[in-house]
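Side project, low priority. Logging it here so it doesn't get lost.
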Amino acid sequence: MTDREPILGAVVVWRDLPRAIWVLLLARAVNRLGAFSLPFLSLVLVNDFRASLTSAGYLISAFGLATIPSRLLGGHLADRFGPKATICLGLAGTAAAQLLVAGSHTFTQAIFAVILLGLFFEIYEPASQALIADVTDEYQRPAAYNLLAVAMAVAGMGAGLLAAVVAGIDLRWLFIIDAATCLLCAAVVAFALTDKTARGQRDTHRSRERGAWSDRRLLAMLAVGTIFATIYLQITIALPLTITQRHLPVSVVGVLLVLSTLTLVLVQPVLNRSRLRLLGHFRIMTLGYLLLGAGLAVYGFATTIAAFAAATVIWSLGDAVLIGRAFTVVASLAPDAKRAQYLAVYGTSWGIAAIIAPTAGTWLLELGGPPLTWSTMATASVLLALVQPSLGRRLTRH
């Protein structure tokens, strides 16, 4: 892997990406459109199963913990049996668990269903990421990962609108619809993709290469990714609390998330044709982390909707710059036969962060309010920016 090669300066037009990318994109977008059940899980547990808030919280934490082995299993299965079979297995298992949640009659049954959901929930993720890497050249990968992220963000907006309609009928229907979209996504992948779309026919037999967990380069990326994920999750954890502390309507949070998605979508064509594409991944990520930190710093002192909106645009520009870069680097570090496992290990950063972020965010808010919380997040972002040059040199040296 190299941090800068002439081909990385090439303009990658989305419509020129391989057909397999578009099939996967369609399938995942359909799945994301129906993936609005999870935010309502705590309400279902409390209202339908009469669980206490504490019990519901413990069970949701157990779900988050279960997603870590789920992702690692997905990486192993994708390298052993291929991305297509793994994606279909993960989606089918997720659908079955969703239906079990909807059909549970007791809290004990719900516990089993929710943990099972966590164990299947992330299986398809590393397989999807590995499939993108398999069918693209390195210079195409940032654009391909960007396209997937943009599609997920747009579909997520639609999911929120659908949730607002369905939630008023019966919350359990959210899980049934989510299960249906999982099965539809699996059907699209099963009939429209073949494992032959993976260029190079990755050897799915046991490789003599060292394991992913013993690769220090990957562990360095995992450490950076965990810090980034912990920062990023504060947008869903600490931002709503910050908005209410500033005596603004909670609906502002939804407006800001929509603004973030619009920024992400609109800026992509500009970024693809800017001089940024001439830079290596780590220089681009340095800029991304600086923009992220600048936007989050403004959150700490914003008191008006306009100020929060300006901050959102700034950090969203950083997010747009960062999207796809880390996955591209990790995919290039991996031996072909272990690419999904490398991506799975890197992806556990989000599971680890999901355990750390809620406690860290609420503790900082109690200790020093929004100024301390967002200044801390901004400082962490700047530190990530500062380590990128040395991280790039270390990884490219090998």
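Brief comment: The chain is about 75% helix and 0% strand.
Revisit when time allows.
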